[in-house]
Amino acid sequence: MMGHAASSNNSAHFLATEDAYPSRNGQAAKLVKRHDPVVYAPENSSAPIASSSIKQFEQQGFMVLDNVFSPQEVNELLAESARLRSATTDQQGMGTITELGRSDVRSVFDVHDNSPVFKKLASDERLAGLARYILYDDVYIHPSRLNYKPGFHGKEFYWHSDFETWHVEDGMPRMRALSMSITLTENFSQNGPLMLIPSSHQQYAVCPGETPSNNHQASLKKQEYGVPSNACLTSLVEKQGIVNATGKPGSVIVFDCNAIHGSNGNITPYPRANVFFVYNALSNKVAQPFCEQPPRPEHICTRANIKPLSTVNPTDKA
Amino acid sequence: MMGHAASSNNSAHFLATEDAYPSRNGQAAKLVKRHDPVVYAPENSSAPIASSSIKQFEQQGFMVLDNVFSPQEVNELLAESARLRSATTDQQGMGTITELGRSDVRSVFDVHDNSPVFKKLASDERLAGLARYILYDDVYIHPSRLNYKPGFHGKEFYWHSDFETWHVEDGMPRMRALSMSITLTENFSQNGPLMLIPSSHQQYAVCPGETPSNNHQASLKKQEYGVPSNACLTSLVEKQGIVNATGKPGSVIVFDCNAIHGSNGNITPYPRANVFFVYNALSNKVAQPFCEQPPRPEHICTRANIKPLSTVNPTDKA
């Protein structure tokens, strides 16, 4: 297991309690430079995937890895997803989010804790091992989620940087986290795939406004705070456009915590179902939120229950 | 000028006042066979575009013609569009439709009557000549519209057949009409392009429900009646999937009146602006609506003011 962060080449120095990425604090919307590395592993270290993919991730802020999981594995994950969604439809507890104005389950949280199948998946070396390499640290799951965009009436999700929210509302100190979305159904251009703005992760979009209390209850359906301005978005998109992260079932979309992304609605008959894990470096554990609100609940932000992921198969360890 | 319809090879016989395509009349949702031809010109007649394109239109129900209008022509049309949109923003008269919950002008109606530029465009032989060939009759504009899907918050439009509405609410007797959408900005996969279900025009999706009074006031923002069932849509999509009708500015998307289409929202910074003309065969003039409601207003359905389009340049006439 790797010990701790190595590279700090473009990392500015801030005290642990200092706000390295202020947002929603009365500043006007603007783009500022990222202070942190994207790939923390030293350049000469051996990557678990092609080094060209790592390079692309560093430059673009994302990569799509095809055929990571076999059709049989995907079927097992789909079955477990269906089980979790039907188990949670009726209770509507804190761990599920429905479509705006509908009863369909759009998100089930904490699947790495609530399901042995997804717990094992979160620790799978194909995912966790890659996260450990890029973040060059032990990793834990910040949140996990089953994202289900139903056919016919799946709703859009507006542009945002996850890090902006995790920083302001959860107190994640620095950009040393990444997301992995495992596609359980085909994600194609028409059923609301993840859309990413290439290289947007290299800048930080300071957002206007503030953070209302209990923002997360609304923001997971429709984000109204922590939203980059039109001018910032236009400036980011003008450079390299927008990319659809599409893939057959069993692909993995890996994207940096600060990559700006969004998605269209889904009026096709084909649901989009993905499992979503956020890997955070253990050295980047959340602290006090950088806003005036109390921390968000544990199922949205792991705080009390931080556990570094162990490898599933000890023989995989270097 | 062509005299009247020639081909009636797969056309069933109905009296003029009979309802050849009942819908919203208490029947369960279902797919029934189309009774009418798609291309009315005789097979041996000389087409104004490649016969392979005409064949594709007949089979798929649509075609995208690239580079029909020059960049200079597009710029003139864009300027006229901007003028019309700003002229109508303040008054919010009957001829404009705003985004649901917003004041942005989404549609300006009757542009072929209200603007000399668009009047000339509607009669342009590249459009009207092609419509005359496919419908093999004199043609008139059923409605015309400037469709503007703004960047950042353009709204989706759900699946529908235009003909179903034109038949039920306007009394258009038969399927002998087509639409042309002239792209004034680039239509790409992410800014809410027209999505079409190939070959859906060969069947008629009988819709459940009825037609409430003044349905058009809501349906042009968000259609809730005349909507095909999930089962019908799934059956249609399963055969040949869904196609994005994308194109650079100056392209023309031609689609049959019964081709089922919809579009996603637009969260990109790039607005989608198209001019939309519906050409109806003069022999297929609207009659009494096939529902219990009074006819829709003239700017949505030309009824009192039906005028066959003359050719702009008399030398173009055969």
Oligomer: homodimer
CATH fold field value of chain A: Jelly Rolls
Distance between termini of chain A?
7 Å
- What helical percentage do the residues of chain A reach? 10-25%
Task: Kindly give the count of domains of chain A.
Answer: 1
Q: What would you note in describing this structure?
A:
The structure is a homodimer of 318-residue chains. Chain A has a single domain (33-42, 50-284), classed as q2cbj1_9rhob like domain (Jelly Rolls). In chain A, β3 and β4 form a beta hairpin. The radius of gyration of chain A is 18 Å and the shape is globular. Chain A starts with 29 loop residues before the first strand and ends in a 37-residue tail after the last strand. Chain A contains 8 helices and 13 strands. Chain A has helices at 51-60, 71-89, 111-114, 116-123, 125-135, 162-170, 215-219, 230-240, and strands spanning 30-33, 62-65, 96-98, 105-109, 139-149, 157-160, 177-183, 194-196, 203-206, 243-245, 252-256, 261-263, 272-281. The first copy, chain A, has a 7-stranded antiparallel sheet with strand order 2-11-7-13-5-4-3. In chain A, 24% of the residues lie in helices and 21% in strands. The longest helix of chain A has 19 residues, at 71-89. Chain A has 318 residues and is of the alpha+beta class. Chains A and B meet through α8 of A and α8 of B.
